[in-house]
């Protein structure tokens, strides 16, 4: 009898845990900030007051002929600072790409 009660209890407990796990993401997604006022932080540490502002900055960089290259150089500088052991690997890859591009001309 104890074994049957223990088995039923285990099944009910596992069922309850699965329902709680099903609804947990809905509770986790609740934001404390009003909609449209979330703070956005870019990888380079710049802080924007909204996603729209970050989007505008990105579109400005994309529309500028040298904007994407400037953003790439800024991101590369940050990457090299954070990963000094892999910085040499990036320089070798860039040199290999330059060689392939120049050989095709």
TrEMBL record:
Superkingdom field: Bacteria
UniProt signal peptide: 1-28
Keywords assigned by UniProt, alphabetized: Signal
The keyword Signal is annotated on this UniProt entry: yes
Compositional bias (Basic and acidic residues): 49-59
Region (Disordered), start-end ranges: 34-68
The name this protein goes by in its record: Low temperature-induced protein
Organism the protein comes from: Leptolyngbya boryana NIES-2135
């Amino acid at each position: 009898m104890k074994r049957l009660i223990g088995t039923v209890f285990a099944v009910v407990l596992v069922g309850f845990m699965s329902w709680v796990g099903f609804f947990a993401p809905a509770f986790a997604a609740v934001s404390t900030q009003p909609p449209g006022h979330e703070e956005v932080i870019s990888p380079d540490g710049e802080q924007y007051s909204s996603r729209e502002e970050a989007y505008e900055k990105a579109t400005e960089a994309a529309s500028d002929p040298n904007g994407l290259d400037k953003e790439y150089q800024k991101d590369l500088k940050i990457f090299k600072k954070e990963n000094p052991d892999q910085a040499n690997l990036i320089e070798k890859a860039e040199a290999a790409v330059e060689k392939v591009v120049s050989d095709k001309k």
